[in-house]
């Protein structure tokens, strides 16, 4: 920056629960793919989060921490369902909360988005296999019983309780990206006819029960955030020989859910969008796509800014200080969600706040050099590439943007096995 005025991202923010975070940088969740045996956190988590805490962010949100060891969303997920790993969880939390940083654990259940290589018996609100480009990675799910739903609610609350005991300073409930809570919210995925299905009031019941149970477990002065889709990308569903309707979770429903969460005492809503069937964020073209798209979900954020008083975190596409400051000036977000840039520039917040840096983080184009492989893998290739970078930091090494896509391909095969090389599913693509 050419002036010495503190940027708006440096300003603290007080949450509804009374807790203050030191600045507006919100490191959004990315799967670290670092868990050890039995889904335990490892020393690599400690090094990675200490590096990010040293880098100056106000809030660090962990990657998916699953509430059930038998139901994982990605290979390498941490799972917390009891206190067996409490000692390492405490080391992880201590590292992530150094320098006055908040470290919030993201708690989740994958539902049907549990890869077949690690789970051949996933659960979902209703039957129906995942379609689209990622369908080959997932098995046909079994519909949850009401008793199983109640058990999962208890699991969310228990994981939140353990997170607080370990020293994490908040939790984020993952209700987006096609995982279990999002599946309940979506009319395309949830075809139940009991109290958990039907109109949005009933489809949202599971989320509200999870939120209320988590709040009771951690108390009123502990931050509880929710990651929520602005909408799912609508999916065409045939209702007859010729009739086609578009189903999913739409913006009007999302705003209604946000208002209900606000009344229940949520401390922050992390806006996102899309599912694995209809991805929004996963791209392979790096900075080219970033410049074309700009900051994600801004129009939706403008729509909700006069509807809510709860703080919003907007994530996706923030690559320059100018875009960050503009979003704060326009009051469309109160927290700047940044994820992938921090896998390459872990001290980006410190550079901006302390050093008055005024540049742009250009993410690389991730490619194997072979179009057929790039097309076959799509977003999986990009996800694996950034997981590689985080693993480097976790091993005490520096990120390396020159690593090629072929190494990410090998990483993906190592996680997903031969299924990673099978042809893409085409059924149901729009």
Record the strand order, biggest sheet.
3-4-6-9-10-13-14-15
For the record, the count of structural domains works out to 1
Number of strands: 15
Strand count, sense and barrel status of the largest sheet are: 8 strands, parallel, barrel
Helix content: 25-40%
Approximate strand percentage: 5-15%
User: Can you write the helix and strand succession as a string?
Assistant: EEEHEEHEEEHEHHHEEEHEHHEHEHHHHH
Q: Low-confidence runs (pLDDT<50, min 5 residues)? A: 235-245, 422-430
Structural class, from secondary structure content? alpha/beta
Structural features, described:
The chain is an alpha/beta fold and 430 residues long. It has a single domain (8-363), classed as Aldolase class I (TIM Barrel, Alpha-Beta Barrel). It has helices at 43-54, 86-96, 146-166, 180-185, 200-203, 205-218, 251-264, 287-293, 298-304, 321-329, 340-344, 348-353, 371-377, 379-394, 405-416, and strands spanning 13-14, 20-21, 25-27, 59-66, 78-79, 102-108, 123-124, 142-143, 170-175, 224-229, 235-238, 244-247, 268-272, 312-315, 335-338. The strands form four sheets. An eight-stranded parallel barrel has the order 3-4-6-9-10-13-14-15, surrounded by five helices. A two-stranded antiparallel ribbon has the order 1-2. The protein has a two-stranded parallel ribbon with strand order 7-8. Strand 3 (25-27), helix 1 (43-54) and strand 4 form a beta-alpha-beta unit. Helix 1 (43-54) packs parallel to helix 2, helix 1 (43-54) crosses helix 14 and helix 2 (86-96) packs across helix 3. The longest helix has 21 residues, at 146-166. Residues 235-245 and 422-430 have low confidence and may be disordered.
């Amino acid at each position: 920056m050419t002036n010495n005025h503190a940027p708006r991202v440096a300003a603290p923010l007080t949450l509804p629960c009374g807790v203050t975070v030191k600045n507006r940088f919100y490191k959004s969740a990315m799967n670290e793919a670092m868990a050890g045996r039995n889904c335990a956190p490892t020393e690599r988590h400690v090094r990675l989060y200490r590096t990010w805490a040293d880098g100056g962010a106000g809030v660090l949100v962990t990657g998916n921490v699953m509430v059930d060891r038998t139901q994982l969303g990605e290979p390498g997920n941490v799972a917390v369902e009891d206190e067996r790993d409490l000692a390492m969880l405490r080391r992880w939390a201590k590292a992530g909360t150094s320098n006055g940083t908040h470290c919030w654990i993201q708690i989740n259940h994958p539902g049907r988005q549990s890869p077949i290589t690690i789970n051949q018996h996933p659960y979902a609100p209703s039957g129906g296999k995942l379609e689209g480009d990622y369908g080959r990675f997932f098995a046909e799910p079994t519909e949850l019983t009401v008793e199983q739903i109640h058990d999962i609610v208890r699991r969310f609350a228990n994981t939140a309780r353990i997170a607080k005991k370990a020293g994490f300073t908040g939790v984020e409930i993952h209700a987006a990206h096609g995982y279990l809570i999002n599946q309940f919210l979506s009319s395309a995925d949830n075809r139940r006819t009991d109290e958990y299905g039907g109109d949005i009031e009933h489809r949202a019941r599971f989320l509200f029960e999870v939120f209320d149970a988590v709040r009771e477990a951690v108390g009123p002065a502990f931050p509880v955030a929710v990651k929520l889709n602005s909408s799912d990308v609508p999916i065409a569903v045939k209702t007859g020989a010729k009739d086609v309707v578009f189903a999913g979770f739409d913006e009007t429903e999302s705003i209604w859910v946000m208002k209900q969460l606000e009344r229940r005492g949520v401390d922050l809503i992390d806006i996102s969008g899309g599912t694995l069937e209809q991805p929004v964020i996963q791209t392979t073209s790096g900075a080219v796509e970033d410049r074309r798209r700009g900051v994600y979900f801004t129009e939706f954020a403008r729509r909700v800014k006069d509807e809510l008083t709860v703080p919003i975190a907007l994530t996706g596409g923030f690559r320059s200080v100018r875009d960050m400051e503009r979003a704060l000036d326009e009051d469309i977000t109160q927290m700047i969600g940044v994820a992938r840039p921090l896998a390459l520039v872990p001290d980006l917040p410190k550079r901006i706040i302390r050093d008055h840096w005024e540049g742009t983080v250009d993410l690389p184009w991730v490619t194997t050099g072979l179009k057929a492989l790039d097309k076959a893998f799509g977003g999986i290739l990009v996800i694996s590439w950034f997981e590689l970078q985080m693993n480097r930091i976790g091993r005490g090494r520096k990120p390396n943007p020159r690593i090629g896509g072929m190494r990410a391909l090998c990483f993906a095969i190592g996680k997903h096995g031969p299924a990673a090389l099978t042809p893409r599913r085409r059924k149901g693509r729009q």
